[in-house]
Structures are given as structure tokens and as C-alpha cells.
Amino acid sequence: MELSIYYCKTWFRMKKFAIEPMDESLAHSRHLSGESYTALIGSDSAPSCFVEFSIDKGMVGVGFLDKKCREYLTYQFQVTDSDNLFLTMATHREFEGDETRS
């Protein structure tokens, strides 16, 4: 099963949408120049998860979203070198009913 990947400047968590969508070549260019960008997995409007590359800060974040696009699981990594990440934070959230805040 292959999932589609979409790119944007960032995923707006509160309003649940992609800010400044971009194509793969622009995301690649941003990566090479050390600029931040986000990869959305599965959908550009309702992804199952997203990966935030904050290259200038040496950080990578991964957020998993439920069917209502609420972030229920978050991992934050520090880039230790070109091939390794170090897990610095993990957060799990549970939601009741139609609640949209964590």
C-alpha cells in the first residue's frame, strides 16, 4: 500500500488545513537550502499524519491525526547528524466525543 505525499509550508493544527501547498520540487529545494516545510501523508486536506522538517532548528516533528484531523500522537526529534535522530518528546492525547481541543 503506497500513500500519497503532499507538501506545504506548515500544517495549521487549530484550523486543520495546509498553509501554502507546494510541489515536490519546491519542498526538495527548501530541504536543500535548510528551510522548513511539512509533508502530509495520505491526503492534502485530511492527512493521516504529517512530518514537519524544521531544518534550521535541527528538529523533525511527526504528528498522527484521527479521522477528525485531531493530533492524537506527537513525536519530536532532534537531528543529531545527517543519518540520525534523537527522540526528545512524545505526547499522546485522548479525546472524548466531538471534542476538538486536547
Number of domains: 1
Mean pLDDT: 93
| Number of beta-strand segments | 7
Number of separate helices: 1
| Shape annotation | globular
Helical percentage? under 10%
First and last CA, distance:
31 Å
Q: Report strand %.
A: over 45%
What is the radius of gyration computed over CA atoms, rounded to a whole number of angstroms? 14 Å
* Major sheet strand order: 2-1-3-4-5-6-7
Largest sheet: 7 strands, antiparallel
The low-confidence runs, each spanning 5 or more residues with pLDDT under 50, are none
Topology as a string of helices (H) and strands (E): EEHEEEEE
Describe this structure as you would to a colleague.
The protein has one domain. It has 1 helix and 7 strands. The chain is mainly beta. It is globular. The protein has a 7-stranded antiparallel β-sheet with strand order 2-1-3-4-5-6-7.
Please outline what is shown here.
This protein is mostly beta strands. It has one domain. The chain is built from 1 helix and 7 strands.
